[in-house]
Design brief:
Blueprint lengths: L59 H5 L24 E7 L4 E7 L4 H22 L10 E11 L3 E11 L4 E11 L4 E3 L10 H13 L12 H11 L3 E4 L5 E4 L14 E4 L1 H4 L5 H11 L3 H8 L83 E7 L4 H14 L4 E4 L1 H6 L1 H9 L3 E4 L12 H19 L5 E2 L8 H9 L3 E2 L4 E2 L2 H4 L2 H11 L4 E6 L3 H16 L3 E3 L1 H6 L1
Parallel strand pairs: 2-3, 10-11, 10-16, 10-17, 11-12, 13-14, 15-16
Antiparallel strand pairs: 1-2, 3-4, 4-5, 5-6, 7-8, 8-9
Length: about 575
Amino acid sequence: MLSSRPARRLRPLAAAALVAAMALTGCSSGSPDGPAASSAPSSGASSAPASSAPASSPSAAEAGATATEGSPEWPRTPTLDRMPFAGLDVSTISDNHRATHLVVPQLAGAEPLNSRLRDQAQRRAEQFWSDSEGSEVSVAPPSLSGSWQAVGVSRDIVGVLTSVTEFAGAGHSIEERTTWFDAAAGTVVEPLDLVSSDSRGLLEQRVHAAVDALPGAEREMSPSSADTAWEQLRDGDVRTWFTPEGDLAIGFSEHTILAGSAGTPAITLPASDVEPWLSDAGRAVRTAVTRPDVEAWNAAHAPVTAGPTSSAPALTPPVTPAPASSSEAAPRATPTAPSTPSATKKSSSTPSATKKPSSAPSATKKPSSTPAAGRGRTDCSVKRCIALTFDDGPKPATDARLLEILARHDVRASFFMIGSSVDAFPGTAKKISAAGHEVGNHTYTHALLKPLGRAALDAELSKASTAIEHATGVRPAVMRPPYGAYNATVTTAIEAHGMRKAMWTVDTLDWKHRDPAKTLAIVKKEAAPGGIILMHDIHATTIEAVDPVVTWLQSQGYTLVTVSDLQDG
């Protein structure tokens, strides 16, 4: 769960390793080797959100997973369109050696909420790193990805659903919770705060009865499923919302109160029972869910200056020793792996799943019927071409500066975007595309793709492409797998979605060292005609490096082009 205390799990997932030798560098090197998992992880999502609280994009769990066949259908938490929030920013924990990518929102006028979400994400990441240390890699390295959506909003109330998917070697585990914030009081509303203090005994009785009635609930265990459910609710490790009829809904993560095959269970308590119990905060939350009003929130809490804020502190994980780089080199038209690694040779203990054979192409030919951004603008058989690429955005504060720098140098780049971030910042995505840059697919939730089944793969790819097309009007023609990790199943899925896989030849490690001088030094050492440079536009230190990097490349006679320019020759 997202609390500091690990959640009880009825069927614990086997921990798997993130050993240093697996060499997940940058958005790290992948491999066409290794089997895909035979089935997708379960989500348990079912019924559509309430019509009075229209949903837009799916949760991370829905984007990265499909329900296990035969699992029960549970009420789904309604989610709102995140786009209209004024002053929206995000904080990110991104550790590419340990396959971790968690994103949480930062809202103007909601610092207690922002702090809570940052702390939850940091604790969850540290728990994952601790659990996976020293274990052995199985199907694929362990990974942790997370995104968010708004659940409800009014003038002074806002709720955020955070969804975290962990792959730990034996399967996936999906964790979801809501965090409610009362701006008028300046406090986070805990789940038990939804009811008055003298009604909590009645609430406990009803929760026990509802959970005991669930198929598969354990009653003879100690603690029982009902006891665990109440513990989860008391500690805030649940989803809470209201149905259009006013019923109180409480949702639980996988592997907590029921077996993992049951998905993400939820119970509802009738409005006729709940109404007398509700506190003022509970009634305010109910209104925020059933009659959402983003405009009222923005009017009360929008920052004085126009546009998104840039005050969200970065969530920077502890630096771990970097395994040797295994970036792929690329000729001009179709990048392939180099015969000589560009960085220190990996030890023999490195799993073969992280090494790319020299014959493996890093860009798969895309059907000519789908146009690619930038095609035909530059003849790279004549020009000394190189591509500058940026992963993990969009992010307004950093991308605004980046676009200015690229425009000043009159160069185009390729942006591999995370679909959930595009849903959060569609205006920034549109500005990037309108400026002539290429927009690429980087999945919806930055999930590690290799262990996913085909249905989950399709969801990650299609939801990201749809979000990008909705924001920019352009369907992505290129796709970069998170961490650079792929196999035959991933490659086939990318091609089926009408895209070409696009890897890199120069890994700047900008996400790790956060040093513009080191970024420039790596580019100077490893740049070559036909190369593809990997950077991340969510880091301010990366943006600081772009001007000197572009200046140096142009001084060496390079023409900066998009990835599609290189792939098309």
